[in-house]
């Protein structure tokens, strides 16, 4: 049989399409068979069949969804049996691996509350805190879950100071602290951007008190000066003197703490102008 070059290409394309169709059909049949097998296991009245299958899905196939479905079905049956401990523990990990972190945290908590004397209780307490950490959102969103995660991890360290999870727990606490720090600064800075300088002074001052070692501290001190100065500028005359005095006080505190700051030049200008206006006010009252 003879082919032209174009005919040969058409023949190859057709052959590839047939092979592709056969492979697709085979894949569909394999998936269907797999689903059919799982459905039979799921409907089985023998909890041991489900238990063994769930362990297989978990350990060998890494199919955490199917494993969790079977584990959930047999939990009421195996509670109080030797297998119950493993089922509860593995179910928590199934949800963790499927990124259902809040559900996982609850399952790990249930585990260590139920099996407090288990050799896996320590790991469950760590994973409870770590699941909360994984569930926490980015720094620009509400950080309530981050605070819960940090508190839970600190309780874990207090309970197990020599734990093999100690270094990881410390890393979580540090990372969470940095996230809370960033969120706290951004919240305070938001008032400054909105030109709500009175609120900015309060928020920035609170940030300094709450995060005394923050990497944002130098900028925070400068923003307090700037907020106080801008607030004085837009204030009525009777309130300006006290606010310019506030600029002077904040500047002195800033210079003592950050004598080589990159913000020093701008801060000096606001300090000098505030002093001049304070002296002018005094001269006008003579």
UniProtKB/TrEMBL annotation:
It comes from the Bacteria. Keywords: Cell outer membrane, Membrane, Signal. Pfam families: YfiO. Residues 51-183 form the Outer membrane lipoprotein BamD-like domain. This is Outer membrane protein assembly factor BamD.
């Amino acid at each position: 049989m003879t082919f032209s070059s174009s005919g040969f290409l058409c023949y190859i394309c057709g052959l590839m399409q047939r092979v592709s169709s056969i492979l697709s059909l085979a894949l569909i049949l394999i998936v269907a068979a797999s689903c059919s097998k799982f459905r039979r296991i799921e409907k089985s009245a023998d909890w041991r069949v489900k238990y063994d299958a769930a362990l297989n899905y978990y350990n060998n196939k890494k199919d955490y969804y199917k494993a969790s479905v079977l584990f959930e079905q047999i939990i009421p049956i195996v509670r109080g049996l030797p297998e119950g401990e493993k089922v509860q523990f593995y179910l928590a990990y199934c949800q963790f691996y499927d990124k259902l972190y809040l559900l996982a945290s609850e399952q790990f908590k249930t585990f260590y509350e139920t099996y407090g004397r288990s050799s896996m209780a320590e790991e469950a307490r760590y994973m409870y805190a770590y699941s909360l950490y994984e569930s926490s959102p980015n720094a620009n969103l509400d950080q309530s879950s981050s605070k819960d995660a940090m508190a839970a991890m600190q309780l874990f360290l207090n309970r197990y100071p020599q734990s093999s999870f100690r270094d990881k727990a410390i890393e979580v606490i540090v990372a969470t602290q940095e996230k809370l720090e960033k969120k706290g600064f951004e919240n305070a800075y938001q008032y400054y951007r909105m030109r709500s300088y009175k609120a900015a002074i309060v928020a920035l001052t609170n940030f300094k008190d709450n995060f005394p070692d923050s990497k944002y501290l130098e900028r925070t001190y400068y923003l307090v000066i700037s907020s106080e100065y801008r607030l004085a500028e837009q204030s009525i005359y009777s309130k300006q003197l006290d606010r310019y005095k506030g600029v002077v006080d904040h500047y002195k505190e800033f210079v003592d703490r950050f004598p080589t700051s990159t913000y020093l030049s701008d801060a000096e200008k606001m300090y000098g102008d505030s002093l001049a206006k304070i002296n002018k006010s005094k001269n006008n009252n003579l």
